[in-house]
Amino acid sequence: MENTSGLSDLALCAVCCEDIKIPKMLNCGHILCLEPCLKELMKMQTFVCPICKREIPLPTSGLADDFPTNFALQSLVQCGAISKRISHIPPVSNERRTVENRSARCSLHENIVTHFCETCLEALCHGCVESSHDGNHDIVKHSEALQKGINDLQPILEEVCKLGVQLKDLSKAVQEAKGRYEAEANEIKNTIGEAKAMVYDLVEKKSADLCTEVDVEKLLTLRKK
């Protein structure tokens, strides 16, 4: 199965080399697909990471499902699947075109795309449906697949917008904290400068007093002689 560009390495399980649907993270940091790999590996007497060969402690429940899910990778894989749904949408230009010219076309038969294979994540024409996609494939109308892709993408976009707002608020809080720290640092510097000047003045005054006392002592000594 062809993988989405830019996600091919991340989206593949290192054991079965198939697309990861539910990525589970081991204690060593490596990621495996929940099914079939992780569940099959846990049936062995000693569970060892197939990548780094480290022995992996099992969850207290003993269930593969309770290994932590890498939601960041799962979101990327979902985005990749969605992009496959909508990647065959033709670009829109300012030129006037007929509906037929603007329609996506099958790369094999050059016919207008009418269906979409949910199993292979491929856009199909009538010829593709009849020739290469049998009854075991989940085939829907192209318009339905496109709408489903848009619907699936909507909550992800909303989440990205929320993260953007949170990032903006965090950036503002960091800038405010930075301003407070800089103000406090300047205040401390000023206090240190004032204390330094005060100590310097005291030292100068004490030095002058000592010099005066020494001069007086010398004068008295000379008079006694």
TrEMBL record:
Keywords on record: Metal-binding, Zinc, Zinc-finger
The RING-type domain, residue ranges: 13-53
CDD domains xrefs: RING-HC (cd16449)
GO molecular function: zinc ion binding
Domain B box-type: 101-142
Gene3D superfamilies (alphabetical): Classic Zinc Finger, Zinc/RING finger domain, C3HC4 (zinc finger)
Pfam families the record matches: zf-B_box, zf-C3HC4
InterPro entries in alphabetical order: TRIM45/56/19-like (IPR047153), Znf_B-box (IPR000315), Znf_C3HC4_RING-type (IPR018957), Znf_RING (IPR001841), Znf_RING/FYVE/PHD (IPR013083)
PANTHER family (alphabetical): BONUS, ISOFORM C-RELATED, MEIOTIC P26, ISOFORM F
Annotated protein name in UniProt: Uncharacterized protein
Organism name: Stichopus japonicus
